[in-house]
Amino acid sequence: MADILELQDVSLEDKNVLAQMVNMDHEQVLFCQDRATGLKAIIAVHNTVLGPALGGTRMWNYASEVDALTDVLRLSRGMTYKNSISGLNLGGGKAVIIGNSHTDKNEALFRRFGQFVESLSGKYITAEDVGISPQDMVWVNQETNHVAGLPGKSGDPSPVTAYGVYMGMKACAKVQLGQDSLSGIKVAVQGAGHVGQYLIKHLTDEGAQVFVSDVYEPSLKEVSEKYGATVVGLDEIYDLDVDVYAPCALGATVNDDTLSRLKCSIIAGAANNQLANEAIHGQAVMDKGIIYAPDYMINAGGVINCFAEVDERTAEWAMDKAGQIYNTTLEIINGSRANNIPTYAIANKMAEDRIKQAMKK
Ligand code: NAD
Q1: Does domain 158-314+326-353 have CATH number 3.40.50.720?
Q2: 99-116: string of b/e by CB count within 10 Å (b at 16+)?
């Protein structure tokens, strides 16, 4: 049983649902349909060995049902790894609602979705993800208590996420640059959004020199005025002579094109799925002598914040837990160097080992 955690990527061509579940080792997938509200959703519970499956709900206009299923299966599996490596007693799950988040939302739809979440009796705890607002979760909460990220509760996760990224970056600097103070270090931050702005504050408070890109001019103006960050072009960010590249906007920015241009010795940022191809670019990054802080480990502050809410922990506890990302990052880098294996692979193994250990108990 243990080995099936080490899985193959699901094939997009494979429309056989149970075969996909077997391939990715999912415990349960719930298809939800309600003609009256137009709800079409899929809830995927990947693994509950460590605890109830926690992961957000995404609302997206998928081109096909196969795309929606593939996305929810991948995302829920990703949550198993994120929750495990973060030392949380949570499993991995995720939900997708198929629809346009700008035009298809209403109270009835989210309440019906809440009833489906409730039907899982706490095996799955939902939260916000792309296309979902706190108000939507308030509607879901009318039907189920298995919801995190409600207004007035744990609040915006971005400060906790940013703090975890900052601590992980310090650990990388300790190994790569011989100092964990970021004073005098040059950091290129891609994306001055919720996480990016808090991260830039930590960096400049500590005396780092920050370069920043964003598609949204007002955010650039804000971070340059408030923190003295230097604004650079959207594409220019990959060519800068910096110590750290911190992707805090898009996925897949570490790819064949950018890898030949990046001059940094550390990649540490909040974005999900930073490596365009985990196996290829994870190895290529290592071959270039760059330390890559695995994304789902370093950006786990958000889920730590959610866990604090459902487990009734304090905000201080969440910050402290996010601060432990420093030690986890060091452990991963040390494991990578000792075994000559890319950091992403060490992180995956650590996450899998914790689950396997729990299965033995
Ligand atoms: P956000 O939407 O607030 O910020 C993203 C920023 O990136 C925006 O300012 C946007 O204008 C900018 N952007 C978009 N395209 C860009 C481009 N081509 N170049 C430069 N900037 C661009 O999102 P966020 O909450 O700050 O999250 C940032 C990233 O971190 C996302 O990938 C998110 O999935 C991930 N993440 C966030 C959290 C969290 O707690 N918010 C937790 C884990 C992971």
Answers
A1: yes
A2: bebeebbeeebbbbbbbb
